[in-house]
Design brief:
- This protein is of the alpha+beta class and 643 residues long.
- The chain is 30% helix and 26% strand.
Length: 643
């Protein structure tokens, strides 16, 4: 659950935290970054008819699991976008839900007794800390405590922000204590430190009556939080509006992804109009590349036009030397954005064009056209990191030794695993599209000189795009004119964009060959592999310590977001929308098997294709959702139109 600020609540169905990133309240102190763990979890126990039962779970160093409340879990489901647990204790049935307020660092736990023969007493024990979300806390924190009968206030030393926990009906008892050596098994599997100590300020106690909900609230906002019932009502109404944009034929998993799309849309800074996209939960912030790739699926495809326009305006303001930022600092302050990307800027042309195809917005087109033209000129003249059009063939070159400028950007220390210095295939497919978009927009505004300039660049680049054809493998080279002057003929998925993007320079037989190659060598049920299994250097499992995982990131790992462009490209060359839609079907199972209701970042290239990486990834959700909506429209109103 998220709050449109970069903060979130996340955990496991068993309510045992298995990651350092799991939290009941992970606040974003400088939206959408500076994420800070305040409340790790809320432990619940109930007393009913003389019986005391714990409902949550913890894992400690050495493997002990205590308590084991999951044995009382009758069901778990995402109901109207809200995670919902139901616990059976004898003949009593208790329902709990966790959600967040919009635009506030405030989390709620809702408890309702659905049936019982007598009142049920619930004890709630908050486990708190104050740390960066990438770290772990040990029992050395100075966490001050002020409390009264219904509220406790945790006040770490300045400049840390105080936070409060309160209950809508019940009492708080101060009983401070440290709990030691919580074990985060997922961190251990990732080769990371896995131990944490947490502080309990005391406990809340309340007597539940049937059909009379009680809310526990945690917040670091200075104002009084809205009542939990009101926040939940607003959330449910918002979700109903979002789902109304879908066709009636949309299956449940597409409805889930539509609600998940909202989780990635955040505010940037204090300007309410400045919007961005969180690349992935739990550890990514907002990235320029991920934002522009995700924008069409998260916003335009769902009719969220005002949000799409706001994001485009936000990022256009950060253009510098013809480049969009790759990423912003993960903390507060004035740290400048990082511009180490060759593709984020070019994806913005595609995102804008996709938006303008769906919504006639002459004002935005006119506002952004000068920015687009300046980007084209900067790429022709040359900008950072060797990004420059080669005047010999009109193709775009990018990269210098030690850099990683494409989406295949894994780097550990000084080791760049997929540098791709030269002329990457998808960068040039994007370059052709950027020239086409700018030429068309310049034509609409009667800017004859710039239209002619872009068309001349497009003519030269298109004429030489055929250099990417690898006749030996009947597909496209991944890279031309590398650091040693060689071409990279390894089978990679980047070639699919030469077919899936609206402007395509390939003849029909080569388009089909590219799709066939990707389907034969790279396709898995959950995405395209980043490298063919028969290629040298292939790594089929994404596991081990950070260096091992980084080395596998783009050397065989399957990426879910690529399944969307592949399905669209398949339809483009074969015209069978039903077949292309069926390529997305396995995601329906995944949506219910990893992070409930959303899509993971990556999967092992080898079977059984275990989900890895971020458990909720923006472009995974966006591109699969966008592909499904596009293909579903083709079935209802057949039309060969990739836009």
């Amino acid at each position: 659950m998220t709050n449109a600020l970069g903060g979130y609540a996340a955990g496991t169905v068993a309510l045992a935290n298995t990651r350092r990133y799991h939290a009941f309240l992970m606040a974003s102190m400088a939206p959408p970054v500076e994420r800070t763990l305040l409340v790790s979890k809320i432990e619940l126990s109930v007393e009913y008819q003389g019986r005391q039962v714990d409902l949550t779970a913890n894992e400690f160093l050495g493997g002990s699991i205590s308590p084991q409340g999951f044995v009382h879990l009758e069901s778990f489901a995402i109901r109207s976008g809200v995670p919902t647990w139901r616990y059976a204790v004898g003949d009593a049935l208790l329902e709990t839900q966790i959600f967040m307020a919009d635009a506030a660092n405030t989390s709620y736990l809702r408890m309702e007794l659905l049936r019982a023969l007598a009142p049920v007493r619930i004890t709630l024990k908050p486990f708190v800390t104050y740390r960066d979300y990438h770290g772990h806390s040990r029992g050395t924190l100075d966490l001050g405590l002020n409390s009264d009968t219904t509220m406790c206030r945790i006040a770490p030393p300045s400049p840390a922000r105080a936070f409060r926990l309160m209950i809508s009906q019940g009492l708080f008892t101060a009983e401070p204590a440290w709990y030691w050596n919580f074990w985060h098994r997922e961190e251990y599997q990732r080769g990371m430190d896995a131990l944490e100590d947490l502080w309990v300020p005391g406990f809340f106690c309340t007597d539940l009556q049937v059909s009379d909900p009680v809310f526990l609230t945690a917040t670091c906002e200075p104002s009084t939080p809205l009542p939990g019932a009101e926040v939940l009502e607003r959330l449910n109404a918002h979700n109903r509006r979002q789902l109304s944009a879908l066709p009636e034929s949309a299956p449940e998993w597409i409805r889930s992804l539509t609600l998940a799309a909202d989780q990635f849309l955040v505010r940037r800074g204090t300007d309410l109009k400045a919007l961005s996209v969180i690349a992935g939960y739990p550890w990514f912030a907002d990235w320029g590349r991920d934002t522009m790739i995700s924008l069409p699926g998260l916003t335009t495809a769902l009719g969220r036009y005002d949000i799409a326009a706001a994001i485009l305006k936000t990022y256009a303001a950060y253009i510098d030397r013809g480049m969009l930022p790759n990423r912003f600092s993960d903390g507060a302050g004035d740290a400048p954005p990082e511009y180490n990307t060759a593709d984020a800027t070019l994806w913005m042309f595609h995102a804008l064009d996709d938006y303008l195809q769906a919504r006639r917005d002459t004002e935005l087109a006119q506002d952004l056209l000068p920015t687009l033209i300046s980007i084209i000129h900067a790429h022709v003249a040359g900008t950072r990191f060797g990004i420059k059009v080669d005047p010999k063939d009109g193709l775009l070159r990018a990269g210098e030794s030690g850099t990683q400028l494409t989406w295949m950007d894994a780097k550990h220390g000084d080791t760049t695993f997929t540098p791709r210095v030269g002329k990457p295939v998808e960068i040039n497919a994007l370059w052709l599209n950027a020239l086409d978009v700018t030429a068309r927009l310049a034509g609409r505004t009667k800017n004859v000189a710039e239209k002619s300039f872009c068309l001349s660049l497009l003519e030269q680049a298109q004429a030489n795009f055929g250099r990417f054809w690898n006749a030996q493998k009947n597909c496209l080279f991944d890279l031309l004119d590398g650091e040693g002057g060689d071409h990279d003929g390894r089978v990679r998925p980047n070639q699919i964009f030469a077919v899936s993007l609206p402007y395509c320079a390939l003849p029909p037989d080569q388009m089909r060959a590219v799709v066939d190659c990707c389907g034969r060598e790279l396709l898995t049920s959950y995405g395209l592999r980043s490298l063919g299994p028969q290629e040298p250097g292939y790594i089929g499992r994404y596991e081990g310590d950070p260096r091992q995982r980084d080395s596998a990131y783009h050397m065989g790992t399957a990426w879910a977001w690529l399944l969307g462009p592949y399905a669209r490209a398949h339809f483009r060359v074969y015209g069978n929308a039903g077949f292309a839609l069926s390529l997305l079907d396995p995601i329906a199972q995944h949506v219910q098997s990893a992070c409930m209701g959303t899509i993971s970042e990556i999967f092992d290239g080898d079977a059984p294709h275990t989900a890895r990486g971020c458990f909720a990834q923006a472009w995974s959700v966006a591109e699969i959702l966008r592909a499904w909506l596009f293909l579903a429209r083709q079935l209802s109103t057949p039309e060969r139109n990739l836009r």
